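Design a sequence for this backbone.
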């Protein structure tokens, strides 16, 4: 019941940003409520009303007045100052403001790009020159010069794979003598959206087949890549497998025996449970989660995607993990954009692409706001004794965003939480954070829809707390009052005993308490309804 009441409460919240030209319909203790205020909540409630009597305009106006009186009372007894209320409002405000921190148009573009890259796979190889974690402009320049020289070697005719084996600082490019692992010469195989860092993925999809990309940077360092092929995605597959870790003759002999048993119509699941060395899947008959290209080792992936019919199994094959036999469980082609849109949007918003959307918002705000940096105040952070300086010596304004002034001390607090980055880079991060923070702080002033919804939640939560105190707790804890109410209405409940119909009596008692409470609130308030405006509203809705 309480949840239902809160839902109704939210529907009956008034709008702060009503149309200025709307006529006044109602005045409660001097507070003017316009026709458009009431019409908005009335029309919202129409969707939840399933009978004509409940659609009556005057009855809805009475309910609206009751609601306004309750909210007014909640503010009067300062329920909005409760720590629990403030904490919940702050949590909700953060949730509600989150979409405003991203550029919706930009997000939609990223989602469409992600779908294209889900439907199409690219095959590439790369060379990496690492940059240190504590990066200086000099480190950046040296790494860039080095990768540029390597790129020139490839452009001048040297084989990309040979150059990758010689120069790439990605360990997987070279042979590993200790483990006996063969290097991949920079080859990454096929991959699609969300398999790589976004900047790497974008460089691959923006490079034509056979061409070498320009140098680009990720958090690992500078890369170049060469695109070998481009194809329509194979989607994903589900397979079950039998794995034997023994890579020698005994392992080969046993895997061939298992294959013969399969050919003799023994069940794959039973054989997986009996023989597989993969402890994570053998109890499930060898079943693996569905996967796409670029997830498994290349031989495993090639065999899995070569199987065509559900139930079909492969011949024994070998990878660096041992001997395998696979059985196809199901193929999953790439779904339509409409079917994938929600999933892709969630991935975009939760992955490294989200920062691009946030950057787009920041870029717009930089053009909109008056922002100034105090270069003199910034120089203090070049001092070697900065960590020992007192807070009093860090009170100069270092950054201004419209009317907001930010001190050196505030930046110093941010700086202490960051390591291994030059100060100029950290300051840019700080500035961007402060721009977004300023935007968020002022959302109620700049975004009417945000303000309306937030105010609805504020009022709804207050009324929930008020009803809890005035009605719900009283009806359940005031046993004498409940008994007195039951005795006063015996004719309605006889011949039943109170304990047997306590739930029904409590509900009636709550309605009784609320009715008396509302009557008291109305007696203490001055309520004026503009009859002319009310008649116009009734006429407008009766003609529809």
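Sequence:
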């Amino acid at each position: 019941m309480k949840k239902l009441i809160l839902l109704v409460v939210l529907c009956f919240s008034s709008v702060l940003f009503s149309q200025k030209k709307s006529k006044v319909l109602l005045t409660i203790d001097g507070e003017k409520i316009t026709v458009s205020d009431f019409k908005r909540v009335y029309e919202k409630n129409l969707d939840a009303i399933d009978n004509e009597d409940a659609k009556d305009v005057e009855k809805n106006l009475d309910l609206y007045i009751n609601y306004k009186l309750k909210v007014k009372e909640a503010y009067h007894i300062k329920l909005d100052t409760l720590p629990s209320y403030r904490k919940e409002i702050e949590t909700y405000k953060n949730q509600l403001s989150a979409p405003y921190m991203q550029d919706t148009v930009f997000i939609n573009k990223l989602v469409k790009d992600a779908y294209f890259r889900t439907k199409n796979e690219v095959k590439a190889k790369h060379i990496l020159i690492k940059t240190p974690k504590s990066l200086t402009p000099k480190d950046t320049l040296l790494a860039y010069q080095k990768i540029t020289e390597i790129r020139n070697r490839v452009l001048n005719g040297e084989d990309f794979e040979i150059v990758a084996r010689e120069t790439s600082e990605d360990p997987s490019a070279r042979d590993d003598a200790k483990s006996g692992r063969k290097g991949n010469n920079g080859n990454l195989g096929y991959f699609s959206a969300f398999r790589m860092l976004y900047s790497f993925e974008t460089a691959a999809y923006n490079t034509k087949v056979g061409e070498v990309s320009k140098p680009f940077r990720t958090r690992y360092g500078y890369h170049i890549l060469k695109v070998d092929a481009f194809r329509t995605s194979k989607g994903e597959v589900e397979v079950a497998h039998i794995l034997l870790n023994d890579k020698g003759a005994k392992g080969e002999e046993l895997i061939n025996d298992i294959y013969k048993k399969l050919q003799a119509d023994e069940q794959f699941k039973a054989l997986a449970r009996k023989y597989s060395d993969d402890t994570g899947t053998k109890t499930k008959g060898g079943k693996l989660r569905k996967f796409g290209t670029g997830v498994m080792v290349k031989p495993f992936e090639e065999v899995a995607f070569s199987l065509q019919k559900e139930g079909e199994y492969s011949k024994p094959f070998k990878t660096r993990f041992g001997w395998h036999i696979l059985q196809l469980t199901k193929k999953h082609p790439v779904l339509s954009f409409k079917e994938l849109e929600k999933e892709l949007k969630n991935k975009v918003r939760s992955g490294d692409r989200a920062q691009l959307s946030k950057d787009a918002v920041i870029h717009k705000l930089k053009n909109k706001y008056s922002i100034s940096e105090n270069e003199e105040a910034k120089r203090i952070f070049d001092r070697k004794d900065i960590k020992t300086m007192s807070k009093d010596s860090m009170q100069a304004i270092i950054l201004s965003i419209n009317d907001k002034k930010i001190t050196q001390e505030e930046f110093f607090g941010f700086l202490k939480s960051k390591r291994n980055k030059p100060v100029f880079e950290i300051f840019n991060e700080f500035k961007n954070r402060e721009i977004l923070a300023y935007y968020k702080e002022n959302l109620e002033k700049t975004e009417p829809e945000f303000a309306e919804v937030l105010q609805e939640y504020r009022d709804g939560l207050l009324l929930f707390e008020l009803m809890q105190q005035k009605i719900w707790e009283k009806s359940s804890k005031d046993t004498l009052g409940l008994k007195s109410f039951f005795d006063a209405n015996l004719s309605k409940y006889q011949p039943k005993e109170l304990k047997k119909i306590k739930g029904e009596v409590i509900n009636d008692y709550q309605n009784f308490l609320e009715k008396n409470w509302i009557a008291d609130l109305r007696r203490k308030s001055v309520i004026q309804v503009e009859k002319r405006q009310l008649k116009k509203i009734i006429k407008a809705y009766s003609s529809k």
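Residues 2-76+447-542 form a domain with the Triger factor/SurA peptide-binding fold fold (CATH 1.10.4030).
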